[in-house]
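Sample intake sheet
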Amino acid sequence: MTTATLPATGPAAPPAAPWRAMPILLIGAFLPILDAFIVNIALATIARDLHASPAALELTISGYGVVYACALVVGGRLGDRYGRRRMLVIGMSAFTVASAACGLAPTVALLIVFRLLQGGAAALLFPQVLASIQAGFAGVDRQRALGAFGAVAGGAAAVGQLLGGVLLAADVAGLSWRPLFLINVPVGLAAVLLAPRLVHESRSPVPARLDVRGAFGLAATIALLLLPLTIGRSQGWPLWSWLCLAAVVPAGALFTAAQARQERQGGSPLVPPSLLALPRARRALVNMLAFATLVGGFNFTLAITLQVAHGFGPLRAGLVMVPCALVFLAVSLRVNRWVAVHGARILVAGALLFAAGLAVFGAVVTGTDSALLMSLPLIVVGIGWSMVLTPAVGFSLAGLPTDRAGLAGGVLTTALQVGLAVGASLVGSLLFGVAGPEPTAASWRAGVLGAVGFGVVLALMTALASSRLSRR
């Protein structure tokens, strides 16, 4: 992953060893990604404790992702303009406070509000990590630092549900799901206190202007899609839900027109039309959206199916993901070498493996209660997941002009977060819609198979999109 703000050149590294800053930077990479995934394992518990509806559960996941996605580029540009260390400290402070508020939320409505704030804080925090690595390291050290970043970011996604299961099973101080958020507080406070001493301050020599209107326009378009998908179904599809869905296309057209007008006037739009005019950028965007939607839906389906349909406890549900997480991490360490030899065929093979593993998982999970048998096809899913996600952004940027690569990275990272949020809402609506308000074993089976089938289609779309990326 990357952001729109990586400069082609940056200020010289500080005299002090920049490696001292890496623990703080890696915390800044780990926490936002962890909190995008760790909540999945707690959905059933949150539903019971806070009497949350399925729609509220979907908003708990997708609300964080939407705000995170729509504010990422703005967060990166704030760091370019006002200082990356300063924005990192502000973002980490806000993320820590929002995490505490989530952990103490007395109602699901407040939990959703605090999750939105947490997503905004994550968007301010995360872009500063890669930009600080770019500014503080050079040559081989930079590659090693980026490798450490990739391992930590991928690990956060892979182990989130396992860590959540362990914390829920431990039931720390009888707090149930709340430690999943509260664990961020001591880590965040330590990072806030140490960052001014260890992280070197850096800015972009020519910072881009902020496109706040673009961020709000994108957020409004996505909200018009997600709100009816998550809330409309549970309310019987009232008129407002259809009006929102009908407004998605006009809102998207207005957003696109505004972005084009801003670029013609010499501004710095959130999603420049000239970038999307590049065939490689368009193909990479389609590839990222399809795969991120797949992953977002897969994680939501997995957590709900194991805990609600099969009645697994949080720890047992988390342990089902252990083989998937282990192979994800192992393949992540080698996949870039494979891409260097085989090019986009690695991404195609990864998407096909994900589709095959997911299809077998759907057959197994609807026919047995064995956690061991469920975990076996997830090994294949983990291999495919890593083969696509780990090299996707860097491979997609390889053929773009140097002066557009940083901007394209920001757009792709935004697409990743949007896809995760949309995937949770789409698949949640499908799963709960088929299962019904009072699901039986048969209706659960039908809902899970529908969600898995949708995921297989998305995996095949990812394979097709990956095949169109050249090897360059």
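Comment: The first helix runs from residue 22 to 37. The two ends are 19 Å apart (CA to CA).
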